[in-house]
Amino acid sequence: MPSHWTGDQSTNQSECPPIGLESRVLTMWFSSFTVLTMYGFVPSECPPMGLETLKIDDFQLHASTMRRYGLGAHRGRLNIQAGLYDDDLYDGAWCAGRNDPLQWLEVDARRLTKFTGVITQGRSSLWSSDWVTSYKVLVSNDSHTWVTLKNGSQDLIFIGNKEKEIPVLNMFPVAAVARYIRVNPRSWFNRGSICMRVEILGCPMPDSQNYYHRRNEITTTDNLDFKHHSYKEMRHLMKVVNEMCPNITRIYNIGKSHSGQKLYAIEISDNPGEHEPGEPEFRYTAGSHGNEVLGRELLLLLMQFMCQEYLSGSPRIRHLVHETRIHLLPSVNPDGYDKALEVGSELSGWSLGRWSQDGVDIHHNFPDLNSILWEAETKKWIPRKMLNHHVPIPEWYQSKNSTVASETRALVSWMEKIPFVLGGNLQGGELVVTFPYDRTRSQGVSREQTPTPDDHVFRWLAFSYASTHRLMTDARRRVCHTEDFAKEDGTINGASWHTAAGSMNDFSYLHTNCFELSMYVGCDKFPHESELAEEWENNRESLLVFMEQVHRGIKGIVWDMQGRGIANATIQVEGIGHDIRTAADGDYWRLLNPGEYSITVRAEGYSASSKVCEVGYDIGATRCDFTVSRTNLSRIKEIMERYNKQPIRQPLRPPVRQLQARR
């Protein structure tokens, strides 16, 4: 028997030898469970049971003892994250109450299941070092009589972890069919204690009468490609969508990653490649953290879905495509994704592939414009010396020596080039929607409510996604890690969660017209392929509803007296200290909640113009156009420039006394 089953070295999936049994099924009956082995059986065919994704609920997890509630069996889930302090109610593992070989962590599958393997981690903690170095596995059908997996006549001892974060996979030499499974630690880090995070690999046996299976089963009717796509497969899929819907799609790239991979986007519009005056621009991005893979696959599914629905004549999708220019960028960090994909969905841990190839967190690699704006506000420079919008990028950030990823530079250029109105970046590892600001205003404070002038609009936008997600606002759902966001309607101000300078959301709001939010679309950053159909069902309606919000508020065109659009005119909303600007054709879109607003337009060389515009409750932006006239001074300057004339200087009149003396 290979050494990684007897306990003297660790293993990974690629090291597992073929079982090599005869072609017939070998069945070994024990008193309370059955072991099945089949010729040609591939262990990886059985997916994770769902400790990490929460498909296994807390009542299915049991333990011999626990150190305290925050380290109970319900916390023994792969990749679960701890709170900041070790005495947190939500801690980072199951930890036994005693350190002895009699401890165990148990999973009740609630039906007969073919168990094929176990993945383990140590405890998530900033302060403690705890992990299990070896363990046994036991199975049962009644939770009373237990049988240990064996190597011939000896108990199998599996090698565990060598540190607390990197997952270690052990496949069983023979699949075990039972209802219950236990992991029994036999040794642990000598300066730590018994603490584990676990995932079980298993295939449910057919049982149409099982209540729990029928209650939790989620199916989809969409005929989409539910799989993880490599970079090459992603490009091919985008090409297939483009060929299926050539009249409404266009593939382009916004730049390259550090290793030279192109950052591909697909545009979905009735006039691809062209900005239509009066039509808003929308974007979804995903994968800025390369190991947060679910968002990438959701966008690939979304482009397939929209193409199919458009061809089938769906009124909703056709209206969205005809009235909106949509951009989907599924992989901002393809280099990081490749690292995570190489080891697989369950073995990439919490951070492998998060950063770019040169070690940069792309999502937080943008210039910190918050500090610049807040300093100007403190010094009362606004609006005399500085505007409250389109805050310029500092010179140091644009230098070649600055620590800015090539992916970030590509994103900045893309955001400046296209007049986006609304955007969402898909993240992973939680179930919540966050909105700006992401940085706390008070120095040295890690959590603080820091609203933008458009806080009410951002809260509505966040709620529009969260409330239509299948799980985000469900008060009955279990928290992913440490925060119960369902109590806050599945949304949170970014800075009140944790402060982060230079986020994509803050930069987008302060440097462009675009309102950007982050959607954390699942507890599991890199779900198994078998979970993708259910995750699509969880997020599909939310993805569509959020896109439709780009048509909420007011829109219009700012004209001059000759009917020409005026670019870079400022749109001011009374009572909201954040302005936007018109695009190149003079068109604009201002996201607003229902109500009446006093709108003022200002443009250099033109007289200001104001009117009251009303926003209704129905989707569909209110049209609010402006026609402005030139000021007298600007007309004079224009005439002088046209005829190359200089101002006429009148001679000074002599004083009255001099005139009288001359007489």
Automatic annotation (TrEMBL):
Which locations, inside or outside the cell, does it occupy?
A: Secreted
Presence of keyword Signal: yes
A family per Pfam: CarboxypepD_reg
MF terms (GO), sorted A to Z: metallocarboxypeptidase activity; zinc ion binding
Tell me where in this chain the Peptidase M14 domain is found. Answer: 227-550
User: What's in the GO CC field?
Assistant: extracellular region
Tell me one GO biological process term: proteolysis
Q: Which domain of life is it from?
A: Eukaryota
Q: Which PROSITE patterns match?
A: CARBOXYPEPT_ZN_1 (PS00132), FA58C_1 (PS01285), FA58C_2 (PS01286), FA58C_3 (PS50022), PEPTIDASE_M14 (PS52035)
Query: What Gene3D superfamilies is this protein classified in?
Result: Carboxypeptidase-like, regulatory domain (2.60.40.1120), Galactose-binding domain-like (2.60.120.260), Zn peptidases (3.40.630.10)
**F5/8 type C domain segment(s):** 44-203
**Which keywords does this Swiss-Prot/TrEMBL entry list?**
Disulfide bond, Glycoprotein, Secreted, Signal
The answer to whether keyword Electron transport applies is no
Annotated function = May be involved in cell-cell interactions.
What family classification does the UniProt entry report for this protein? Answer: Belongs to the peptidase M14 family.
**What name does the UniProt record give this protein?**
Inactive carboxypeptidase-like protein X2
